[in-house]
Write a structure and sequence with these properties.
Elements lengths: L2 H33 L18 H11 L2 H5 L7 E4 L4 E3 L16 H10 L21 H12 L10 E3 L2 H8 L6 H4 L17 H7 L4 H4 L35 H10 L13 H4 L4 H13 L1
Antiparallel strand pairs: 1-2, 2-3
Helix pairs in contact: 1-6, 2-5, 8-12, 10-12
């Protein structure tokens, strides 16, 4: 065998061994990450009590903040990603048989929803708790009040079947969990946010965009998404921002309602089942916030 052939062969074998090592390491680390215990500081007690407006507000939040996309209108859970190699189904959070929240206390809801940590200390893998971390105590109580009042529906635990490349990337730190993105030391958001067409109100609505568009709304690859998903566009102002394509709040409202851009092309991936139900007031406030960054 010629020298250059032997060198090429050894080089190929070296690359194969390196890739195999990375895959094995990634899978091992991924399993460890999914089962590790995340230490949280003591959480402040939520002292807000539900009132006559809580159910209506909770129903609105459930319908517009992404809950329905993963858990379904009944709360029983639904498959929201299934492309053959990747399948994700939300768990049953209704009061019915198979509910994963049947024994939840308020602090358990808080840990899971606003901090991305299950009651047993393990991190949630799919739910974008970073979107809900700044949910005010009033809205937090309204949301769980509504969920607890859902009619009992049969369901079960979450189904998270990830293909090998996704598990490897998760293990190697390329797909961060919500719990790693949240500043758990921040105090609860106890101050109610006035609803109206203001940038402040829009900032609050825009918290739900962080899971896909990033903490600073710079866009990019959606963590954990299938390989054929397009990157999330940049919502922040600056080079590459999509904001110039929406010269008015009415243009943004129209896109959210139809799922189509001004040129008629469909927007992929966005959870329009939820977003289309946002009120005109919230959407105009969101537009004011995006323009004011």
């Amino acid at each position: 065998m010629k020298t250059w052939t032997r060198i090429a062969l050894w080089a190929v074998l070296g690359v194969v061994a390196l890739v195999a090592g990375l895959v094995a390491t990634g899978l091992t680390l991924s399993a460890h990450k999914r089962d590790r215990v995340v230490a949280l500081p003591p959480l402040a007690q939520v002292t807000v009590a539900p009132d006559d407006t809580s159910l209506a507000r909770g129903a609105y939040l459930y319908a517009t903040r992404g809950c329905v996309d993963c858990h379904g209108a009944s709360g029983a859970g639904r498959v929201f990603v299934d492309d053959g190699s990747l399948k994700i189904k939300g768990p049953n959070i209704s009061p019915g048989p198979g509910s994963v929240v049947a024994a939840y206390k308020t602090v358990d809801w808080d840990r899971t929803l606003r901090h991305g940590v299950k009651p047993d200390g393990r991190p949630v893998l799919i739910m974008p708790s970073e979107d809900y971390n700044r949910l005010t105590d009033i809205d937090f109580v309204a949301l769980i009040t509504y969920v607890k009042a859902l009619p009992p529906a049969a369901g079960g635990a979450a189904v998270i079947a990830l293909p090998l490349p996704v598990r490897v990337l998760h293990g190697l730190g390329q797909i961060p969990e919500a719990a790693t993105k949240i500043d758990h030391a921040l105090p609860n958001n106890t101050r109610a946010v006035a609803q109206g067409e203001s940038a402040e109100s829009g900032r609050y609505v825009g918290e739900m965009c962080k899971g896909c568009h990033g903490d600073k709304l710079l866009g990019g690859k959606i963590p954990g998404g299938p390989p054929d998903w397009p990157p999330a566009p940049r919502l922040a102002r600056g080079e590459g921002s999509v904001l110039p394509k929406y010269p008015s709040s009415e243009a943004l409202v129209a896109m959210m309602r139809s799922g189509k851009r001004a040129d008629g092309t469909a927007v992929r991936v966005m959870p329009f089942e939820s977003l289309s139900k946002l009120s005109d007031t919230d959407l105009r406030a969101l537009y004011l916030f995006l323009k004011s960054q």
